[in-house]
Amino acid sequence: MQYEIKGGTLPVVVCRLNAGEQMLCEGGSMSWMDDGIVMQTEGGGIGKVFGRMFTGEKMFRNRYVANRPGEIAFASSFPGSIRAVEVTPDKPIIAQKGAYLASFGNVEVSVHFQKGRGGFFGGEGFLMQKFSGQGIVFLEIDGSVVEYDLAPGQRKIIDTGYLAAMDGTCQITAETVKGVKNVLFGGEGLFNTVVIGPGHIMLQTMPISNTAAAIYSHIPHSSN
Questions:
Q1: What per-residue string of b and e applies to 161-175 under the rule 16 or more CB within 10 Å gives b?
Q2: Secondary structure class of 92 (helix, strand, coil)
Q3: Alpha-carbon dihedral sign for residues 160, 141, 134, 62
Q4: Structural domains of the chain sorted by starting position, each given as residue range(s) with its CATH number in brackets
Q5: Biggest CA pair distance of the chain
Q6: 3 state SS of 201
Q7: 95, 98, 103: which is closest to 55 by C-alpha?
Q8: What is the tens place of the pLDDT at every residue in 17-74?
Q9: What is the spatial distance between Cα 132 and Cα 110, in angstroms, rounded to a whole number?
Q10: What is the pLDDT of residue 177?
Q11: pTM listed for this prediction
């Protein structure tokens, strides 16, 4: 499989499959494909189906199999970026809910329960997604992507919603914003997310929740 990401802030990933190769994607993500590529809808066990529902994904996924060489394209559902991330047995990837677009190879997608303060107060939610196995996963990122490699013990303090993905070697926790004035008037909320290395992290510049709030503020509302 070869791929190319096109489209700037309205991205699409175009994948070129050889005969016999296949890709798995979120239901409704396929944008166009060549004749000779066939779709198979699958759900898996009841636990996987409901696990996907709780992480913001659709309950069923589509597998596309190439009977002969051809192209298939998957478009992002929101203005932003698409990132191709390699998954290996010793390097699982943890991502925000709704980040999954498509995957190639033997990539297992499961629910990742964020334990402790990071889950309760970190702003990223209890449930995230875990990608393990061997292959490539294509992730949807809100806005542009800024990436960092954290050394062992190195910390990055992140405002709510800006963490898009991280290596499974990273740890996540929450840190209280210090100072009553900062909490009441700083506009940053009560907690920040803290990611601790070692590992690679991806941050997004415009979380979809921020975009929705900005659009909502400009929509006329009835005074009734």
A1: bbbbbbbbbbbbbbb
A2: coil
A3: positive
A4: 2-217 (3.60.160.10)
A5: 64
A6: strand
A7: 98
A8: 999 999 999 888 899 999 999 999 876 544 454 555 554 555 678 999 999 999 999 9
A9: 8
A10: 66
A11: 0.81
